Inverse folding.
């Protein structure tokens, strides 16, 4: 099982109603204990090996910790390149989720293959040699080197997701335009969303939303020191969510579609094109740079906290470093918020009506995939 673990959901039904509901995450909360006493180079290697999902987000978070701690110095040019890699990773996670989870079968839509290939090419060509997120010497290429691949990505994303010459500024302008698109187009995403509409499932899981507020560094830093908080986080006795839907909550279409699964799935789709626009516009100033780190060694404790907007939501890394070795380290992933035993998924499941055991399992799976484009889950439904 990957280090990210999976979500276990056990439901007991009695008299055609949900009687008992248990949600657990198998993600090992104490994994960062492995980092204590290790050098920063060892931890960088460990993060790369341990985290396959949101790999860029975790490693970018670590590099920012070193930068904030004064151990290494990241140029603005370099930071822009890492942010580009993070945007690419989020597009990849959303697209793979759409290709593999926006359907009833266990197959993968092969139409996603050109998109994934191009995303990988952008990452490979941005850094000419070596691993772009490692602490090794490397060469960062200018934006012009990856620009042709980004042009290819534009066409591929439109073909794969929207089809038929549709453009996002039209499809996502309002609910009427959105409905016209899903009813007319035959792309994988349009067919899936149209199926939800035909089966009257668009409002499935509608509940009051509680989005994770902007916490001060001092507040979140203190909370992360508490192991029980990392396992089951809450803030002022409220369990929040940190999802793609959280980031898109003010978007005109997403807001109009509401907090049910139609609004949540659509938020993933809308975000892909928002990121495409950012990839095309925000990184044109990336320049050629040879990168060679000179680490500053200090026998004083240096603490830092960073927050990275990963595909799944807000990812926090906090570390205390001395003599370039880890004294302590904490990671809080958005999964711990979104799949808290008493969190948003529980509230969504409690709203469900269902016909039978299989129908309930299907509806729960739709809720899970609408919350998190990456997480794996195991759903069991039993009768009392």
């Amino acid at each position: 099982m990957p280090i990210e673990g999976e979500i276990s959901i056990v439901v007991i039904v009695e008299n055609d109603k949900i009687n008992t509901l248990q949600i657990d995450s198998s993600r090992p909360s104490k994994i960062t204990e492995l980092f204590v006493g290790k050098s920063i180079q060892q931890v960088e290697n460990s993060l790369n090996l341990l985290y396959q999902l949101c790999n860029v987000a975790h490693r970018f978070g670590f590099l920012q910790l070193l930068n904030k701690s004064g151990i290494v110095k990241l140029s603005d040019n370099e930071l822009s390149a890492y942010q580009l890699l993070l945007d690419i990773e989020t597009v990849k996670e959303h697209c793979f989720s759409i290709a593999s989870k926006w359907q009833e079968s266990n197959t993968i839509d092969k139409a996603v293959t050109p998109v994934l290939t191009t995303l990988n090419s952008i990452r490979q060509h941005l850094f000419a040699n070596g691993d772009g997120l490692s602490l090794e010497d490397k060469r960062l290429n200018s934006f012009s080197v990856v620009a042709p691949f980004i042009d290819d990505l534009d066409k591929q994303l439109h073909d794969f997701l929207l089809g038929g010459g549709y453009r996002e500024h039209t499809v996502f302008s309002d609910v009427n335009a959105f409905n016209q698109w899903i009813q007319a187009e035959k792309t994988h995403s349009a067919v899936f969303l149209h199926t939800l509409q035909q089966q009257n499932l668009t409002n499935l899981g509608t509940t009051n939303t509680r989005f994770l507020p902007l916490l001060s560094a001092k507040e979140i830093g203190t909370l992360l020191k508490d192991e029980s908080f990392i396992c089951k986080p809450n803030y002022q006795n409220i369990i929040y969510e940190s999802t793609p839907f959280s980031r898109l909550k003010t978007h005109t279409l997403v807001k109009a579609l509401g907090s049910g699964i139609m609004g949540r799935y659509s938020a993933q789709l809308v975000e892909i094109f928002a990121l495409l626009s950012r990839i095309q516009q925000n990184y044109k100033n990336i320049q050629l740079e040879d990168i060679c780190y000179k680490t500053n060694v200090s026998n004083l404790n240096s603490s830092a906290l960073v927050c990275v907007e990963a595909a799944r939501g807000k990812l926090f890394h906090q570390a205390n470093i001395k003599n370039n070795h880890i004294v302590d380290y904490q990671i809080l992933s958005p999964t711990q918020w979104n799949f808290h035993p008493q969190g948003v998924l529980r509230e969504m499941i409690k709203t469900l009506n269902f016909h039978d055991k299989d129908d309930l399992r299907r509806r729960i799976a739709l809720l899970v995939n609408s919350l998190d484009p990456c997480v794996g889950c195991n759903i069991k439904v039993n009768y009392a």
